[in-house]
Structures are given as structure tokens and as C-alpha cells.
Amino acid sequence: MDDMTQKKKLIAGNWKMNGSLQANAALLQALRDGLGEAACTVAVAVPAPYLAQVQGLVAGSAVALAAQDVSQHESGAFTGEVSAAMLRDFGTRYVLVGHSERRQYHGETDAVVAAKAQRALAAGITPIVCVGETLAEREAGQTEAVVKRQLAAVVQANGQCVSEIVVAYEPVWAIGTGRTATPEQAQQVHAVLRAQLAAATARADRVPLLYGGSMNAANAAQLLAQPDIDGGLVGGASLKAADFLQIIAAAHAIQAQAATELGAEKA
Ligand code: PGA
To answer: pLDDT tens-digit profile of 219-233?
Structure first.
């Protein structure tokens, strides 16, 4: 197998500010029961107070723990913030940085997002760097410029380490709206991001590029079949075990098919 085919699809759920002790236990139980031999990587990004609970609930399963945000600071007088070291204490493998809701409602700039990615990497946690344009930016023909600017800040701050990140392209107009980017629209942006990464690192092919924005059981297969779409960042549909499992199954099927085709080529 070459490097490309070894890369597993990654399906990450973003619970946002949802959940309760009881609901989390039920959701994780249903996920564990339904997962079986999923060939793809699965993660759930949970609200910070539930990290300890979910760490326990996913133990011994194929589900990885993710957080939704991390402080740009290492430690100290930053009331309300959660550091990368704290996330690591709970076995966190991934952390979202620069989600559009953080950029929009909490004023996170490209520089802050880049610093957060740096903190995560330094703590051994993989940052899932979210980029994406608003509807106004798309309509003004600025999509490419916006996502490139957002990713450039992270590349600049992290140098060669950028090969260790995950990037999620999430058009803001598609988040929580039921309006998904077409597979062609998403692939087009993913190809731009891949080329930008290739200019920064020789290992750009290994960086998982996720699509996010109203991904659901019905549209996942088509999106995940695109050559530069390596997985999904799933909000609403990750709160329903049946829907999330269907998205995982779609990723699994695409990956299994790719492995079969590669086997046939080599035979
Ligand atoms: P959505 O959210 O799937 O509900 O559109 C995706 C996200 O915000 O990560």
C-alpha cells in the first residue's frame, strides 16, 4: 500500500453545545453497539465539561475523543479557558480550532486560530483547523482567497508541522442550514487547499481534508467519494446515532472499495 491508500477517512462529530450526562451515555452506547469493524477513524468533539465522562465512555472502542476549542495560551490568568495540557490529561486526540462559530461569535482571528493550532500540536493533540467562506464572500467570488488566507496563517505559524494537522472546509452558509455544498463545489475548494499544503510540506497528501456543513446520511457518500475529501466534520447529524453511523458506513464502504481496487491493480 502506498501512503495515499493508507490514509483512513476521518468522520468527526461536532456536538457543539449539546448533550447531558444521560444523553451522552446513550449516544455513545448506541455508537459503540453500531460501529462494528469500521475501517475509518471516528471521533466525537464534546463540550469541555464532558471530556472526563466521554473519555470513559469511549475507552476500549474505536471512537477517539475530541474537544471543540483550546486556549491560545499555555496556562495562567485566563479565566474560563481550557489549555491544551488539560485536554491531553483527558486523552483528547483532536481539537477543533477556528470553527466558524468561534470566529463569528468570539472574534477569533486567523492569528489566534494559528496560535491555537500551535498549542495543540505542542501538546501532542491534532488540531482540526476549520476554514470556510460566508455566503457574501462566495457570492463576491472570494471563496478561494478567504480559505487560503485562513490556512496560510496556520501554515506560517506551524511550518513543517502543518503535515500533522487536519483541515476542515466548512462553508459557513452550509453549516446547520440544510444547504450542503455540492460534491463538485467542495472538491474544488479541497483541491485548492491541497495545493496550498503541497507548497508547504512534502507530506500534504497525508493531511486529512474534511468537508463540513449539513453533511448527512443522504449526501455523505457522494461527498466522501471526491478525490480530495478525506472525511467529514458532522454537526447536527452526529447527535443522532443512526445518522452518524450511516455516515461512518458510507466512509467505510468508500475506503473498502478503494482497497479492493488497489488490490486488483497490484494483482
Ligand atoms: P452541521 O455542522 O453538520 O450541523 O451543518 C457542521 C459543523 O458546524 O461542524
So the answer is: 999 999 999 999 999
